[in-house]
């Protein structure tokens, strides 16, 4: 084992990017500031956050929006980077998360934290079919495929959204919208991105009108590859994505969109990995003399029908999605090198949603609907110390069926006053057949869960009430109370007893949440200044924390899931100001106070920290109490009417608690400070030269100062294992529209 800086760079690539930016800077010496009238005010952003089309400033909820064009220019591809400056959001890098970090997951919301509530990860870090505390929708499909390319916009809704969205939208959701076919214009775009760590990123889209104003297709694809940040081969990632959409709209009252999407990824592990240390806050590296990989494949087919039937618009959205993964993952943990063979043979999802909504001009705005969800899973996972010493072997066959009924209405009961009320009924049934084999380290033995013992049913009613008042047409006040629901589960788990390790069923109760929110949305100075703010209080019952080691000796780790009530409250603030047509300043601040409360005795023993943190599951993320980002853009007009946009932003991430147990506190002096995560400041820069509306070239640098800091520390068996943030990355992006 050895210490290592963890930073690899390409001098030529850095010189290229810096040279590009410096060339732009020289070119601005005779430039004039752009000042067209159309750019003098903040743009109006249209969203569908509440399943209807409206301006984001007219939506009485905490909603943030990021546009696909901006994300492409900033070199933001992963969900974590897309959401990094959104108030109240932490994590989201679910392309490689969970206990099988690097093994892929069928739940892209794993690792996402909204308002202090981490998304659930299955016991032991399962990658499959966990009902997380947050939901992600891609083109209206729950946990849909292809949410990182050819993007129109990304909407982030904080707070419970269960009334309209149902399953797992407990803490909030991310709604990703990709570009739909254009019925009139032939065209497309192509983007080439290159950067350090051997980054290669290619994305393209083609719009093909087949019958003008009636039928059109859009085809898009994406390829992303880079080396690992520590070991070039051991951390390498590759992904290939494709999507086709066909839109048929014979008249204004009817439209049919059908689509198909695929995603293939390959993540490598092994080589040089972060190892363990006997000392806190020390990063040491270890060589694992092997390179392994896990491939993950997703396929999705869906449709969306919208039909104005007179009394309202009828919407039908069916979808089918499949996921499978296969391979071996190498993890260097506090107990040594863990080899994890993974195989998901079947993981099929069918969803069907029906909605009937009032016409947009109706005085009473209403919608009613129903949702059906079905998942069939067959998954095998194992864990071994070294090539032969079995730790555990788990075979799961599981079926989950759920349906929901919902209704919501908004009524203007007085001038500039509106009230919204909604309700939802959910019914979830699960049937589990699981065979769990413990290895010699756990004392051997096996347990089979099947029949009635593996069946559970969870029902719940959620609601939303909201009051809105327009102080002026540009100033909105709102107050709301809403609830959320996430179904429970049953699985085989290990439990430490005086007689040794015992295998038995672990029943996870349904999770419920109640949230109170007040907020305000405002435009001032003739739409040049936007100020949005929200305050919230959330009470979460029986929050599930996975990956908790309940072996008092630390080794071998006995992972289980424990539950405790949780509460969080905080403030969110978003400011955008456009003092001139060429300048834009943005400030985003999120403060969250998230704590476990009224902890059960068993939970208190193994989770000593009151502040909500990550757990020993590698993919789990911790809430960051205070996050703030400040960004600035300036546009120069160059000769020939080309433009240069310079952008810079800085983010502050406050210190926060790490994970430790009561036994750790009793044995290890200063354990709380040893695992505490220190504050960090990160900065990004990018410059975009646009020759015309159709050609642009961007150079970007993320984490400009190459600040490497510990984002999480796992303590077990007398040693510490830290995790690091991403190093400095830089690249160039060439985009062409035609």
UniProtKB/TrEMBL annotation:
Which Pfam families does the UniProt entry name for this protein?
Answer: Plug (PF07715), TonB_dep_Rec_b-barrel (PF00593)
Which residue intervals define the domain TonB-dependent receptor plug in the entry? 57-172
The biological processes this protein is annotated with in GO are:
iron ion transport
Q: Which InterPro entries match?
A: Beta-barrel_TonB, Beta-barrel_TonB_sf, Plug_dom, TonB-dep_rcpt-like
Q: Enumerate the UniProt keywords alphabetically.
A: Cell outer membrane, Ion transport, Iron, Iron transport, Membrane, Receptor, Signal, TonB box, Transmembrane, Transmembrane beta strand, Transport
Every copy of the TonB-dependent receptor-like beta-barrel domain together lies at 188-704
Q: Mention any one GO cellular component term assigned to this protein in its UniProt record.
A: cell outer membrane
Q: How does it sit in the membrane?
A: Multi-pass membrane protein
Query: Which compartments is it annotated to reside in?
Result: Cell outer membrane
Q: Where does the record locate the signal sequence feature? A: 1-31
Q: Sorted alphabetically, which Gene3D superfamilies does this protein's record hold?
A: TonB-dependent receptor, beta-barrel domain (2.40.170.20)
Family note: Belongs to the TonB-dependent receptor family.
PANTHER family (UniProt xref): FERRICHROME IRON RECEPTOR-RELATED, TONB-DEPENDENT OUTER MEMBRANE RECEPTOR
Q: What name does UniProt use for this protein?
A: Iron complex outermembrane receptor protein
Which species is this record about? Nitrospirillum amazonense
């Amino acid at each position: 084992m050895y210490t290592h800086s963890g930073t690899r760079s390409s001098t030529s690539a850095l010189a290229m990017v810096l040279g590009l930016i410096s060339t732009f800077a020289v070119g601005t010496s005779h430039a004039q500031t752009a000042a067209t009238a159309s750019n003098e005010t903040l743009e109006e952003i249209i969203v569908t956050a509440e399943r209807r089309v409206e301006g984001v400033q007219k939506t009485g909820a905490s909603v943030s929006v990021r546009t696909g064009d901006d994300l492409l220019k900033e070199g933001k591809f992963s969900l974590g980077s897309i959401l990094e400056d959104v108030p109240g959001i932490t994590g989201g890098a679910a392309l490689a998360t969970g206990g099988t970090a690097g093994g892929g997951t069928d739940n892209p919301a794993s690792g996402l934290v909204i308002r202090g509530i981490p998304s659930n990860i299955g016991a032991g870090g399962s990658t499959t079919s966990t009902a997380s505390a947050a939901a992600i929708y891609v083109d209206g499909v729950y946990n849909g495929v292809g949410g990182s390319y050819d993007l129109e916009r990304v909407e982030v809704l904080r707070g419970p959204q269960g009334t309209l969205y149902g399953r797992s939208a407990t803490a909030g959701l991310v709604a990703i919208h990709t570009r739909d076919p254009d019925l009139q214009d032939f065209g497309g775009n192509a983007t080439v991105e290159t950067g350090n760590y051997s980054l290669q990123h290619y994305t393209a889209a083609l719009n093909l009108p087949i019958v003008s104003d009636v039928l059109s297709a859009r085809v898009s694809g994406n390829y992303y590859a880079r080396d690992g940040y520590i070991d070039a081969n051991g951390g390498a990632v590759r992904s290939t994505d494709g999507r086709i959409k066909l839109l048929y709209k014979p008249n204004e009252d009817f439209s049919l969109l059908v689509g198909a999407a695929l995603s293939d990824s390959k993540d490598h592990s092994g080589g040089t990995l972060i190892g363990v240390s006997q000392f806190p806050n020390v990063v040491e590296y270890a060589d694992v003399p092997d390179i392994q990989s896990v491939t993950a494949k997703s396929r999705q087919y869906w449709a969306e029908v919208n039909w104005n039937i007179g009394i309202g618009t009828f919407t039908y959205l069916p979808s089918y999605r499949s996921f499978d993964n296969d391979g071996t993952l190498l993890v260097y943990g506090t107990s040594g090198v863990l080899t994890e063979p993974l195989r998901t043979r079947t993981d099929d999802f069918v969803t069907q949603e029906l909605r009937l909504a009032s016409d947009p001009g109706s005085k009473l705005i209403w919608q009613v609907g129903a949702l059906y969800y079905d998942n069939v899973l067959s998954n095998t996972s194992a864990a071994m110390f070294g090539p032969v010493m079995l730790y555990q072997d788990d075979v799961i066959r599981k079926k989950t069926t759920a349906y929901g009924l919902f209704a919501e209405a908004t009524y203007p009961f007085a001038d500039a006053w509106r009230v919204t009320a909604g309700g939802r009924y959910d019914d979830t049934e699960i049937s589990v057949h699981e065979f769990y084999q413990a290895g010699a380290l756990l004392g051997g033995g096996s347990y089979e869960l099947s029949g009635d013992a593996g069946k559970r049913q969870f029902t719940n009613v959620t609601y939303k009430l909201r009051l809105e008042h327009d102080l002026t047409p540009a100033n909105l006040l709102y107050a709301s109370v809403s609830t959320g629901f996430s179904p429970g589960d049953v699985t085989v788990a290990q439990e430490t007893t005086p007689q040794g390790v015992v295998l038995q069923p672990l029943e996870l109760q349904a999770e419920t949440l109640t949230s109170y929110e007040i907020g305000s949305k405002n435009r001032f100075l003739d739409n040049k200044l936007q100020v949005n703010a929200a305050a919230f209080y959330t009470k979460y019952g029986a929050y599930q924390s996975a990956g908790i080691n309940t072996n008092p000796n630390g080794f071998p780790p006995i992972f289980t899931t424990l539950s405790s009530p949780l509460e969080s409250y905080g403030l969110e603030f978003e400011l955008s100001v456009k003092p001139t047509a060429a300048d834009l300043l943005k400030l985003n601040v999120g403060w969250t106070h998230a704590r476990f409360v009224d902890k059960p005795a068993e939970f208190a023993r193994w989770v000593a920290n009151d502040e909500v943190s990550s757990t020993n599951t590698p993919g789990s993320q911790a809430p960051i109490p205070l996050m703030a980002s400040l960004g600035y853009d300036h546009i120069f007009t160059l000769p020939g009417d080309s433009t240069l946009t310079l952008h810079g932003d800085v983010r502050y991430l406050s210190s926060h608690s790490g994970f430790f147990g009561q036994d750790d506190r009793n044995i290890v002096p200063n354990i709380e400070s040893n695992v505490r995560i220190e504050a960090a400041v990160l900065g990004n820069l990018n410059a975009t030269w646009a020759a015309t509306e159709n050609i642009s070239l961007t150079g970007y640098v993320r984490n400009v100062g190459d600040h490497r800091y510990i984002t999480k520390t796992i303590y077990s068996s007398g040693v510490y294992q830290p995790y690091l943030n991403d190093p400095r990355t830089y690249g160039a992006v060439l985009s062409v529209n035609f």
